[in-house]
Design a protein that fits this description.
Elements: E1 4-10, H1 35-48, E2 54-57, H2 59-64, H3 66-74, E3 78-81, H4 94-112, E4 118-119, H5 132-139, E5 144-145, E6 166-170, E7 173-177, E8 182-185, E9 188-191, H6 195-200, H7 203-216, E10 222-225, H8 242-249, H9 252-265, E11 268-269, H10 271-277, E12 282-284, H11 285-289
Parallel strand pairs: 1-2, 1-10, 1-11, 2-3, 4-5, 5-7, 6-12
Antiparallel strand pairs: 6-7, 8-9
Helix pairs in contact: 3-4, 4-5
Length: 311
């Protein structure tokens, strides 16, 4: 079995979904950036342990900080796409999503000087309502996706999705899927290894569950982190509710220490290399799409999701 996957969602602290109602995208340029310092520390941690990871980068970041993207690529990490400006997929039409991803892919590739073939949706927003996104990604030349989470959450998730890495045969082609990592516990899928789950769970529990995924379920884990999660001194976002701020800031002071322990105790690799090394079962499109809207839908679903824990 290959090593676990280490991944980084490259975005600013103020770009998370929980703040989008109080901070317009048109105002982002006026907010102080804290990305460079946090990203530098993550790159240093990975270099210390000889780990090459996958960095899912926003196109908005790549346009403004192309040297950071080039620095990540020069260190041997996989450069991947996180969309352009962190819009949730199910808030877009298929055409809007296609334009968003094409724009992001172009600017990221220009900054990195390498092809981009892996994608992760902002806030794991590949759901049954937006499953058509996988067809769009295949059309755009993406080979890998990491945007499905097999859990039930108020913002995302496909609870009965295949929990391990697999191939999905869409009408537009085959795409390799590495879902968010879960472990069966008391009859439920328990999420782990990144975002709010990494910040909330004590280290001993995360370590135990990661080992359980490999030993009992026979598959590697996906770890994911955001640069702002190792920055406990980041400014408050004005106007955000107490709950949104609490969900965003919980566990920030312990995240870097957990990452240091994780990198010392587990082996990691890039998403593309992990998938290359795995025998991937094929999941037919109809398993996912039987209750999903068509990509020909002309407008986003009317269902609106409320903010959950920042992941």
């Amino acid at each position: 079995m290959p090593p676990d996957v280490f991944s980084v969602d490259v975005e600013e602290y103020f770009q998370v979904s929980g703040f989008e109602k109080v901070l317009a995208r048109s105002d982002w340029d006026a907010v102080p950036s804290r990305l460079a310092g946090c990203l530098s520390r993550i790159l240093e941690l990975l270099a210390i342990h000889g780990v090459q990871a996958t960095f899912f980068i926003l196109g908005w970041i790549a346009e403004r900080r192309p040297r950071l993207v080039a620095e990540i690529a020069a260190a041997g990490h996989e450069i991947a796409c996180h969309g352009y400006d962190h819009r949730l997929i199910y808030h877009m039409t298929p055409r809007e999503f296609q334009e968003d991803v094409r724009r992001a892919k172009t600017v990221i590739e220009d900054a990195a000087g390498t092809a981009v073939v892996s994608y992760r949706a902002p806030s794991f927003s590949v759901t049954r309502d937006s499953l058509w996104a996988l067809e769009v990604l295949a059309d755009l030349g993406f080979r890998n996706d990491a945007g499905i989470f097999p859990i039930r959450h108020d913002r995302y998730g496909i609870p009965d999705a295949e929990p391990g890495p697999h191939r999905i045969v869409t009408p537009s082609g085959t795409i390799r899927e590495f879902p968010g990592t879960t472990v069966r516990w008391a009859g439920c899928n328990v999420p782990l290894g990144g975002g709010g789950y990494l910040r909330l769970f004590p280290w001993w529990l995360t370590r135990r569950l990661m080992r359980r995924v490999r030993s009992r379920h026979g598959r590697p884990c996906m770890v994911y982190v955001h640069p702002w999660e190792i920055d406990p001194d980041q400014p408050e976002v004005k106007g955000a509710s107490w709950l949104a701020r609490r969900r965003h800031r919980v566990g920030l002071r312990t995240t870097e220490g957990k990452l240091r322990r994780m990198l010392a105790g587990f082996s990691f690799t890039r998403l593309d290399r992990c998938l290359d090394a795995l025998p991937l079962p094929v999941v037919e499109w109809k398993r996912y799409s039987s209750r999903a809207p068509s990509r020909d839908s002309s407008r986003p679903p009317s269902r609106a999701k409320k903010g959950g824990a920042e992941t």
